Amino acid sequence: MTETHRLLIAIVSIGLYMLWVAVLFFKHRKKNNYAVSGEETLVVYASQTGTAEKIARAKAAALSQQEQTSVVSMASLKLNTLSSVSKVIFVVSTYGEGEPPDAGRTFSKALKKASSNQSDYLSHLSFEVVGLGDKQYAAFCQFAVTLFDNISALGARALSPLTTLDSGKGEHLSLLGSLPQDEQHPTHAFTLKNRVQLNEISLASGEASKEPSDHSEGKPSNPASPGLFGLSLNVDHSNHTQELHEQWEAGDVLEVLIPQQGQSPIVSRSYTIASVPQEHDVKLVVRQLVKDNGQLGLGSGLLTRSLPVSQSVQAYIRKNTSAIITNTQCPLLLIAAGSGIAGVRAQLAKRALLENAGPVWIFFGERHPMQDDVLDKTLSPFQNSDCIFKKSVIFSRQKGGGYVQQRLVEQRDEVKSFLGDTGQVYVCGHFEGMGQGVDMALQSILEAQAYNALADEGRYHRDLY
Ligand SMILES: Cc1cc2nc3c(=O)[nH]c(=O)nc-3n(C[C@H](O)[C@H](O)[C@H](O)COP(=O)(O)OP(=O)(O)OC[C@H]3O[C@@H](n4cnc5c(N)ncnc54)[C@H](O)[C@@H]3O)c2cc1C
Ligand SMILES: Cc1cc2nc3c(=O)[nH]c(=O)nc-3n(C[C@H](O)[C@H](O)[C@H](O)COP(=O)(O)O)c2cc1C
Asked: Could you check whether 41-181 and 186-321 share the same CATH topology?
């Protein structure tokens, strides 16, 4: 080979490499930067479980009669996009303890940084903020409050004072009226086929009652709580519900309407669906909540005790976009405690029914090995699927036991190499205790860059309550 040949090969290789870099750059830019024309009103939502997104779409549908509107998730919004828009409407929920939903984390950080510089960067912009929250949480609509303040600090003009809605009391429902028909949720009758108790906690369990608190579910537990129930519900097909099966995916939630006495407003409770459509039945795993006065919780009491087999409840399936994992080839870490096994079961079933799905590593925490060995029972018939790489179980009330986040940290090196650069994480169960602990564990296991990439690249799915 002559010198000229070598030179030519080098030039062609460099050219190809630069072309590849350029392709990657533009692909990345397209994914992360939402392009708008200055004329349109941007409706931006940050939603964890889909309610704020629905309100954003309803608002956009109502506005589109008068003006050009676009709806966009905050996850794909860059701060500099707002420099080319004149009007923006934010519809945001609050998650964690007054924090943004996962889709709002990056934008919120960028906004906070920019607003601390006190510039008039957004003085051309007019805006509205609708906050969605629940007054049961101390930091009611905190993310909406912070967003409103930070946008104002950059010189933008508020078109109206901050609106806050308590979704726990159904204050958001009137805003859903202008949602297109196909995005509204007609309810259906879901008939209880069977119900089994998955654990064997007895009321006289001395060991259980000595324990002051238990973070396997994340909330202080009532020792008299008989525990966890598995339910199978059958959808009534007589009322055009055939398509229901096509609409539901692992990660989605069943929104159960609770029958109320007299004129009381309708209340609902969410339950992560534990099955996939191929199984036909909607399966749930419900923790029975016993309050201090001995009364059962409204939703869990209905599902675990007062609803007789063969009777039905009105419910609808709600999309839970942040919990849906489309890539089925990458490694998947499924983490749960207690009733969170529902989400793990659905995600596992999705992969187990595919050929050559990527590997799944399950981390599960419960209270007592003698009474709570619910893992294999619940995961049946997928508990021995080829896609399972490993199951790591930990019991909080066993000598030398602990919580699921501890198990993660103990196996940090293996967890890190299992996840690699493409692995996904799905966490299901209570936010308090378990969800928070797992988040801290992941932060300590992964370097900051890898942890941030997990959230930014949509590989961190938190189905927490
Ligand atoms: C997206 C999502 C998915 C969910 N998935 C599931 C699931 O798969 N399985 C599941 O079991 N739950 C799930 N939940 C929780 C579920 O929606 C209900 O919140 C839960 O069943 C309690 O509701 P309830 O109506 O029975 O209790 P309520 O009647 O609403 O009573 C709750 C109240 O009881 C009090 N309380 C709470 N804990 C205790 C305690 N240990 N002792 C005494 N008092 C207490 C508190 O004041 C609380 O406000 C999910 C929630 C969300 C948001
Ligand atoms: C784990 C969790 C934490 C929450 N934390 C708060 C909070 O700190 N403040 C608040 O006002 N609402 C809080 N909420 C209530 C939600 O904001 C409320 O349910 C809202 O309707 C959810 O909207 P979304 O479906 O768009 O995410 C929390 C809800 C969950 C499940």
From this structure: no
